[in-house]
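Aim 2 progress update. The chain analyzed this quarter is reproduced below.
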Amino acid sequence: MTNKPSISVVIPVFNEEESLERLYSELFQVLESFVCWEIIFVDDGSDDNSFPILKKIANENSRIIAIRFFKNFGKADALSEGFNHSRGDIIITIDADLQDDPVEIPRLVAKIQEGWDVVSGWKKDRKDPSSKRIPSKLFNFVTRIFTGIKIHDFNCGLKAYRRKVVKALD
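Predicted structure tokens:
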């Protein structure tokens, strides 16, 4: 693998009109340090102005792909569609809600380049209400026990995958 791998960022979107332009701006600043990159937004049936915003962004930059589902199929389907369109050596996933910092992407890429196949982020300072944080902590605890995988936050949307891993996912 070269020092500067190609990067695909896949972003599932559902009613995120308020965060999209800021997310794109922050991602653009980070990704400019890579030679070859693309961003794939997958609008999962939003009923706000998310898709018109995504179309505008895509029209301004040929590295941006905007895909739209006619109804809400769920995050897994949105990610799968984004993976199908991705061309990068490394595929990054990030949620559109601004809870994950794009500045962390080079650190994830560095870990992949060290030899890891999957690297997961961790929402250390969650902005969710306690009604979401407490069940999430319980889920993470139980999942760690049953799987033996020691990840702090299984639900964190910020992840990096080698292309071969994404292509093997069902």
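The longest strand covers residues 7-13. The beta strands are 7-13, 37-43, 64-68, 90-93, 118-120, 159-162. These observations will guide the mutagenesis experiments scheduled for the next reporting period.
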